[in-house]
Amino acid sequence: MASHSQAETPALREQFNTEAQQKDASTLGMWIFLVTEIMFFGGLFLAYTVYRRWYADIFAVTSSSLNVYIGAANTVVLLCSSLTMVLAVRAAQLGRRKAIVIFLILTLLLGGVFLGVKAYEWNQKYVEHHIPGPDFHFEGVVQQGPAQLFFSLYFAMTGLHALHMVIGAGLLIWLIAQAGRGRFSATYMTPVDVVGLYWHFVDIIWIFLFPLLYLIDRHLGK
Amino acid sequence: MTEHIDSARTYILVFLALISLTVLTTAVAFVNLGNFSVVAALAIAVCKMLLVALFFMHVRHSTQLTKLVLAGAMVWLAILILLTLTDFATRGLAGVPGR
Amino acid sequence: MGKLPLFPEQASTFAPDVDHLLFFLLAVAAFFTLLIFGAIFYFAIRYRRRSHQELPAVQHGAMTLEILWTAIPFALTMVMFLWGASIYFREARPPADALQIYVVGKQWMWKMQHMEGKREINELHIPLGRAVKLTMTSEDVVHNFFVPAFRTKQDVVPGKYSTIWFQPTKAGKYHLFCAAYCGTRHSAMTGWIYVMEPRDYANWMRGGESTGSLADDGAKLFQDLACANCHKADNHGRCPSLVGLFGSTVKLTTGGTVTADEAYIRESILQPNAKIVAGYAPVMPTFQGLVTEEGVLQLVEYIKSLGPRPAVAEGAR
Amino acid sequence: MIPAAAVERENYLNASYGLKSWLLTKDHKRIGLLYLFTITLFFFIGGAMATMIRVELLTPQGGMVSSETYNKLFTMHGVAMIFFFLIPSIPAVLGNFFLPMMIGARDLAFPRLNLLSWYLLVIGGLFALFAMLAGGVDTGWTFYTPYSTTYSNSWVIATALGIFVAGFSSILTGLNFIVTVHRMRAPGMTWFRLPLFVWAHYATALIQVLGTPVLAVTIVLLLCERLLHIGIFDPALGGDPVLFQHMFWFYSHPAVYIMVLPAMGVISELISTFSRKAIFGYKIVAFSSVAIAVLGFLVWGHHMFVSTQSLYAGMVFSFLSYCVAIPSAIKVFNWTATLYKGSISYATPMLYAFGFIGLFTIGGLTGLFVACLGIDVHVTDTYFVVAHFHYIMVGGAIMAYLGGLHYWWPKMTGRMYPETWARLSAGIIFLGFNLTFFPQFILGYLGMPRRYHVYPPEFQVLNVMSTAGASVLAVGYLMPMVYFIWSLRYGKVAPANPWGATGLEWKTASPPPLHNFDETPIVTHAAYDYSTVPGEVIDFG
After folding, report:
1. How many CB atoms sit inside 10 A of residue A210's CB?
2. Residues of C with CB below 8 A from D453's CB?
3. Cα B10 vs. chain centroid, distance in angstroms?
4. Nearest to A85 by CA among A181, A179, A210
5. Which of residues 263-282 of C touch A (CB under 8 A)?
6. Whole-number Å distance between alpha carbons of D535 and C53
7. Is 60 exceeded by the pLDDT of residue C51?
8. How many CB atoms lie within 10 A of CB A184?
9. What distance in Å separates the CA atoms of residue B95 and residue D285, rounded to the nearest whole number?
10. Is domain A19-221 classified as CATH 3.50.7.10?
11. Cα D465 vs. chain centroid, distance in angstroms?
């Protein structure tokens, strides 16, 4: 490994001795960044836990107003995008430059579909007056306050998740441009790998948001 | 560096497992399990998380350090939520408002 | 200017206890401060550098010492913890026979309501030697009821009740401070606690214009808001009877139960459908915005007056 | 800026010139200096506000400024000092500069990220400065709801955004340090050969990475509530303001350790160098840093003993708070034991180290008082708490920061500072500090609440004493500012290792070359092995 000289590998930055060291550092850096993301969403999960314990009945009713089928379908869309992402990473590992681009574009498209569906759902909330604020009104619950708390959490959680998706989409566009120029190979694919980690993480957050927001005591309603 | 490359088949199997679990969690939500509903939903979500992390994020082949970092994050998340709950879960036990 | 007080007055049963604990901690702190300062001075002089090339012998540490200076401080801190916790526990739990007074904090004043109907602003008159329990809430932001001479304080939080109690041991006039930052005139949200000899207190209570007891005010409000239309004394109204409610255990439609304390009654007035009594429909409208926090406290007191306090619930405290 | 005599040899200061070479630098040493300028600015802004607060408190009626202004002063004093001075102080200046050098690396793992961190601090700082100039913010640095969300008519949003952005600066610095310590150590630099400064910064970085995101999300929710009526903490909706306090203190208590752990790292270096002895119980001191970082996360509820948090939670948090006191005590004992049979020099950095141990001991021991449930109920929200945390954060962190700055000044600039003046200022600061803050313990126990603009007249004498001390303290803080600048031009040229210290940073020239070392060092000794270095070369008389 030490035989790599800096001239042979232009991608090696000057503070590192070897490419392995550089790749290890980047990957570790991304993992630690994901730790900070876990704690960031952790605050939201905490607020959710506290209020769901307090207002279990109201949360069940308000949760039932979300369309579970759209939510489930969107989960599937996001899982598909994770699959295409991991296949893009695999293509990079194997040095298949064209496949990288194709899978990345698919991932981006699926991410776009997810965001589109999300936008549709939010618009529904607007139409139904389920957006917290002076115009908020939720039929069938007398305690409007806690109902608003649920939707506050809903918008905070899905909103921040969507923001992460948008950032992820930006990263994907950048990756696609780079991959299109053939920058990645079996020996240098760290950016693909690292963005992959991020994308999967955002997927994991949704994996928790879906049951927590959409699936509270569904049996009551139907 | 020896990179471990999983087969596309593995990924597709994992993906199918994830889809099945999504269907399962949705279906289970319509069954009245009482307080167990939350447990079931979270257990399935944790399974899905593990699948994504172990396979898609390659934690299976990662260094001990990466695993340690992840475990640490989980512990800290638990600290945040559980220690806060020492307050919220024991309020009112003293029988005095505000204590 | 000119006065230099060094120690606060002791005017409640808590004060000497807290001060004794303080003296214990001061002794421990003084011991360790002198130990560390002494050692540093001694070593710094005794082992001062005499030549630039000096090379002291290498020491790698000593496990016995490390264990010693871990274990001893830990043991001392555990004494502090237990001693402190026992005082905290007492401060948190008012005695059953405590004199009940209601307090509402708002930017930037304290409003006190006595059971007998006396109201005060930024002043509180209480009898010497009698345990006093304050049930407090805030109309806006977080405040804090702090009486240094009593060595106790408690936050006053909007949206819920909090409790503080003390038993004055010395007649006099004591500072009341708001200790939780609450906005522009935070430092003006102060007042006085007057601890009076019981006879003086009784005279004070009789004097001035008294508008009837707090429960009476609550009863009037109860009529004005037309609560009695549904909450009838017998159980034949559309809503549950409130007689003997306070302190009892209420069965809910969800199958759970709740103890009817101040917080429950307050919630039931402001958010009636949060907890529905088993056998009744959720028909009561909310009174949020129609009743002030003071009004709610009057209603609570009225409802309390409707029935005897069950001895069991009090004994449990 | 560039000392004339050092020009012949190429170093990081003369490798390139011009504003651009600084604003676009990826060199950790230059970024360290950028931080130095930035946080010094905020220190003097925060200091100016502290001065006004102390002058205002000379009289009990509060005549100088209005209550509104007074509230804005203490809020912005706290915000500037905590988020824009103390949190970045030692890690972002000294850590940035020396952590890579101490482990024998050419730079941090992510130099561009490092520069981004500085820009984030500057952007955050500009938000905060804008808020100050536009009219200020009056919520207290704690931003308690519902005051901050609903009732305050001041620049909460700009300030909170500034803190949010600066938080990411802190997160990215921590991330960079963790990866650097794991992946960039020189050959032979094993974990137990790391200087304790590095251990302390590693522990600090853990807190920055694990705690700061929770502050970030708390601020997001605060902003949502203030701007969009998404009311997570709003009691009118059935929310609980106490939940905000939990989330705020989950970060903000560990944040105290972000300030004081690096300070402890600096002190370990100073004590060792100026007694020419390895730190007594190296491993225990190293592990105690990590223990403080971990246990520090379990104690936040002790800020909330009277908040209407549950009685039982109060007990749990009090117990855990006593547990975190132990590793701090262990450190103090080990430092003191290091002095035993040492060769103790009275150079300025060592005077600061003595001062640190003294003030930190008092700060730490009074921590036992506020962790104690029975006493805290009386003293919380009073000047007792103000005095306690100033002993830790000013007496501790700033003493160590100044000690470290003196210690490494020759390395950073290639010049020596004037020793006599420096010793004098160290003495003045120690004296002024105690005069300022010791009376506040008494004030606090007497019951004077904090954040009071007007106060009962019987507290005046102690307040006047405190203000008198503050004026001494201000002189003490201004002196280094003057003679440090003076030394850049007139100071003696510094040798590579003026103190006879052992760290790798002293094995290279002063100021260091662009890539720190002419060749990657190979480490063969434990830290603090003084048999391998020549003695002190500067005679201080």
Report:
1. 23
2. 186-187
3. 21
4. A179
5. 271-274, 282
6. 5
7. yes
8. 26
9. 44
10. no
11. 26
Same domain, C73 and C111: no
Bridge-based pairing of strands C172-178 and C191-196 is antiparallel
Interchain pair D250, B84: CB under 8 A? yes
* CB-count exposure of residue D513 (10 Å: 0-12, 13-18, 19+): middle
Domain boundary among C152, C185, C206: C206
Q: How far is C42 from chain D (nearest CA, A)?
A: 9
Q: Edge-to-edge strands of the sheet including C162-166?
A: C119-121, C109-114, C99-106, C132-138, C162-166
C-alpha–C-alpha distance, residues A103 and A203, integer Å: 17
Residue C145, domain extent? 99-206
Residues C219, C304 within the same domain: yes
Diameter of chain D by CA atoms? Answer: 70
- Rounded Cα distance between D188 and A51, Å, is 52
Q: Are residues C232 and C257 in the same domain?
A: yes
Does residue C293 lie in a domain region? yes
Domain count, chain C: 3
Q: Which residues on chain A are in Cβ contact (under 8 Å) with C254? A: 57
pLDDT confidence band for D403 (50 / 70 / 90) = very high
Residue type, A26: S
Residue C74 amino acid letter: F
Residue C118: inside a domain: yes
At residue D347, the 3 state secondary structure works out as coil
The structure tokens listed for D339 are 């002095």
- Looking at the domain covering D27-532, what would its CATH class be? mainly alpha
Q: Is residue C6 part of a domain?
A: no
Q: Which stretch of DSSP H or E encloses residue C144?
A: strand C143-147
Query: Residues D298, D304, D309, D314: what is their CA dihedral angle, to the nearest 10 degrees?
Result: 50
Which residue of A70, A195, A202, A204 to mutate against B (max B Cβ within 10 Å)?
Answer: A204
Spatial separation of the C-alpha atoms in residues B16 and C234, rounded to whole Å: 63
CB contact under 8 Å between B77 and A31, yes or no, is: no
ipTM of the complex: 0.92
Cβ neighbours of D376 in C, within 8 Å: 84
Q: Are the beta carbons of C88 and D311 closer than 8 angstroms? A: yes
CB B18 within 8 A of CB B38: no
B44, two tokens: 């399935």
CB atoms inside a 10 Å sphere around CB A70: 15
If one compares D103 and C234, the residue with the highest pLDDT of the two is D103
Residue C282 token pair: 């959720």
Q: Is A2 in CB contact (< 8 Å) with chain B?
A: no
Does C86 map to a domain? Answer: yes
For residue C93, what are the CA distances in angstroms to B16, B95, C164? Answer: 57, 8, 8
Helix (H, G, I), strand (E, B) or coil at D100: helix
Q: Which of B5, B45, B84 sits opposite A211 (nearest CB)?
A: B45
Q: Where are the domains of chain A?
A: 19-221
* b/e sequence D33-64, b meaning 16+ C-beta within 10 Å: bbbbebbeebbebbbebbbbbbebbebbebee
Residues D3 and D12 sit within 8 Å (Cβ to Cβ): no
What pLDDT, in 10s, does the model give residues B43-88?
999 999 999 999 999 999 999 999 999 999 999 999 999 999 999 9
pTM of the full predicted structure?
A: 0.91
- In angstroms, rounded to a whole number, what is the distance separating the alpha carbons of residues B83 and D309? 12
Q: Is D123 exposed, middle or buried (0-12, 13-18, 19+ CB in 10 A)?
A: middle
- In tens, the pLDDT along D75-117 reads 999 999 999 999 999 999 999 999 999 999 999 999 999 999 9
- Write down the pLDDT at residue A82: 97
Q: Name the amino acid, one letter, at D426.
A: A
What DSSP state is assigned to residue D109? S
DSSP C13: S
- A204 in Cβ contact with B49 (< 8 Å): yes
CA atoms within 13 A on the CB side of A58: 26
